[in-house]
Amino acid sequence: MADSRWRPLRRLLSAWVRVRRREPAPEALGLDPELPTVYVLPRPSLSDRLLLECLTERDGLPPAAVRRARGDEAPPPLLALPDPRRRRRRPTPLRRLIERGEDVQLVPVSVFWGRAPGKRFGLWQLLAADDWRLTGRLRRLLAVLVNGRDLEVHLGAPLRLSELADGRDPALIERKTARLLRVHFRRVRERVLGPDLSHRRTLIAGVAASPAVVAEIDHQAGDDEASRERLRRRAHRYGREIAASMSYPVLRFLDGLLGRLWHRIYDGIDLRGIERVKALAGHHTLVYVPCHRSHIDYLLLSYVLYEQGLMPPHIAAGRNLNMPVIGPLLRRGGAFFLRRSFRGQPLYARVFDEYLHRLLSRGHSLEYFIEGGRSRSGRLLAPRPGMLAMTLGSFLRRPANGRPLSFVPVYIGYERILEEASYQRELAGGAKRKETPLALLGVLGKLREPYGRVTVNVGEPLDLDAFLDAHQPGWRADLGEPRPAWRAGAVSRLGETLARRINAAATLNPVNLVALGLLATPHRAIEAELLERQLALLAELRRPRPGDESHPLPAGAPRDWIDHARALGLLDYRPHPLGDLVTADERQAGRLAWYRNNVLHLYALAGLVAFAFRHQGRHRRDALAALLAPGWPALAHELSIEAPADFEAALDATLAQLAEAGLLIEEAQGWRRAEGLAEAEQLRMLGRLIRPTLERGYLLVAALLGEAPGHFDHAGLANHARQLAERLARLTGRDAPEFFDARLFDGLVESLAREGWLTIRDERLYYDESLREAARRGRTLFDPALRHRLERVAVRCSDARNGAPEERTGD
């Protein structure tokens, strides 16, 4: 019979407790209905046992309550792992279960009454929340009262006792089973609570007393003891400026606040790929590297991870956010602050590097943005090496059997962002305004506007051990040396790989698609019917194929996507007797360009192929491959996409897609453009997506070839090409500041050097006839009128640089 002693307490617990998260769902647990089920708790706990009885009854799982008649020899439905430190005279329940010789399935159960990151001090942690310390009866009672509405239950995959037995001695089987279960419980606790945290003061003191920091102090102070003491105080001050102070009450507060905020701002958050993180959390140190679109990114990812039962990471934030009121709140939510530049501050650099190393070496997850700052243009910015170099340096300081480290790329896609107006102002040349609490209050006034949905996609994680094995064989010989000679090259490759994985996780939303279609028109106006057909084409080109890991397309039809963008204020819909029109004014077009650039890379190859048919209706297949292949690596580098291992196979697949859509027709010798006016216009619009990128490349190469080899250095060529692009934009009435973004031209120069088109000697850039020949072939991509316009801009600006008078143009 059921034990009735605790029935009143069980009813009280059932009425009070609210399970905030249960993982996995009961139907996904994979229990064998033919086998008896025994639940295993990490330690004896009356509250956990009673709770589990309630949950199994509520969810239709095998019961955890003890219900047996006299003489019933069925296995116990629930047991707790014995404490390995205690010597027992009688066999443990687990040992008795093994000696029975029956096959049962063991289900480990972890119950968290609140989720405090463990600290050595802290009144809240002492009184209530679960952490790394064992829990006494009084403290558990407080935990139930305080955290009963914030409960998490994690069930592990079932373990079959017959697979663990192997016919060996029961004592050995018990130790093996208990060890496997303890490893599982430890990993779950690390995933949910994070590693044990030192108190902030203790951590700062340890950083300031570390050998690296002390050596830097000794180097700067020399024999001056007063200077040494002053530098010690400065190191502590730097530590206080940098270090986070993660606080459980603040995490709880932010969770509740942000939950309400997201529901007010957004229509919902779409999360994909989080299973990849859960598979690594608990036995890998995780470094989250999201794209940086908005200040909201900081809060959004931490909120999503917390809601998914994962410990929020420590976040690297710019010191500009360490402002009154906001800074202390972010710091207690896990943010640590860094200066924009460490140049000329060797002691600060040592303190920061040591702080980062201590977080990583203890297994704390981190989050930082490899782009350095928010993207004003909407495209992924070139990775910066700073944080990646320090992370790799810390990794190399670990022992040979240290904990593995994995980077987790994350793509964040918005249908609208809060910073729309400020981004457009800054791209047009306006100064970046300083973040202040008053500026934040100004943002709060925008919360009544619609912002659509937001997407968080987790990309393919990158295991750092495997990455170094592939790109730097023999790297383990340099363990213990944080700055080997090969580190700079490895950091560059690491940043590029992570950027590509972030972009590979991109997903389309209605605003992205409408921006891609509408901005491919010359005057930001299009017939609604044609736009709907173009949106259907764009969706079809990205429709997941069998075995493809592409993310699903947005729900609804093209007309629904247009209406959604209109509801967000990003376009105008104008009814007309001869056919409705969709238009965007200058302000709307500037904002749409940002959302288009989020996903432009998804159509790079399709756009390149379409552009090749812009003025030349037929191409032989081999000639087309020879025409497009030389420029493809530079294009892939600019857009941070993974260049296919076999370009010709990828080209064939793209041609087949365009033929399936009715835009191209295959012939015996190659391919030709479809003859219908509608199909020709759709192909032309698809090619316009990639046209600005090709124009920038054309201008840069024309400027380079217009001067003798060695004339330019890297910065000079990038800046001159940027000026050409700005001039072209003004002459053609193209109000698109992102077209002449300086970072794009800097990346183009890097791509030409990486692909061997340029050589660098004494910081000057040299080329040979192979580049001139490739440029001559590439000119055929452009129709004569466009080619003439680009060449006139390049030649006239070159004449002006060399002192020749410049004619005015009417273009």
What are the defining features of this structure?
single chain, 811 residues, alpha/beta, eight-stranded mixed sheet, six-stranded mixed sheet
Explained architecture:
- This protein is α/β, with parallel strands linked by helices and 811 residues long.
- It has 34 helices and 22 strands.
- 49% of the residues lie in helices and 12% in strands.
- A hairpin with a 2-residue loop joins strand 21 and strand 22.
- It is globular.
- The model is unreliable at 118-128 and 804-811 (pLDDT under 50).
Compact description:
The protein has 811 residues and is an alpha/beta fold. It is globular, with a radius of gyration of 31 Å.
The helix content, as a percent range, equals 40-55%
Task: Name the assembly state.
Answer: single chain
Q: How much β-strand is present in the residues?
A: 5-15%
Structural class: alpha/beta
List the helices and strands and how they pair.
Blueprint: H1 7-16, E1 19-23, E2 37-41, H2 46-59, E3 78-80, H3 93-100, E4 105-113, H4 123-127, H5 137-147, E5 151-155, E6 159-160, H6 161-165, H7 170-193, H8 200-208, H9 211-221, H10 225-242, H11 248-265, E7 268-272, H12 274-280, E8 285-290, H13 296-307, E9 314-318, H14 326-332, E10 335-338, H15 346-361, E11 366-367, H16 386-396, E12 405-414, H17 420-427, H18 437-444, E13 453-458, E14 462-463, H19 464-471, H20 487-504, H21 510-518, E15 525-527, H22 528-541, H23 558-567, E16 572-574, E17 581-583, H24 586-599, H25 604-612, E18 618-620, H26 621-628, H27 632-638, H28 647-660, E19 664-666, E20 670-673, H29 677-688, H30 691-705, H31 714-731, H32 742-754, E21 759-761, E22 764-766, H33 769-778, H34 784-801
Parallel strand pairs: 1-5, 2-3, 2-4, 7-13, 8-11, 8-12, 9-10, 9-11
Antiparallel strand pairs: 4-5, 4-6, 12-13, 12-14, 15-17, 16-17, 18-20, 19-20, 21-22
Helix pairs in contact: 1-2, 3-7, 8-10, 8-15, 9-10, 9-15, 10-15, 11-13, 15-16, 16-20, 21-22, 21-23, 21-24, 22-29, 25-29, 27-32, 30-31, 30-34, 31-32
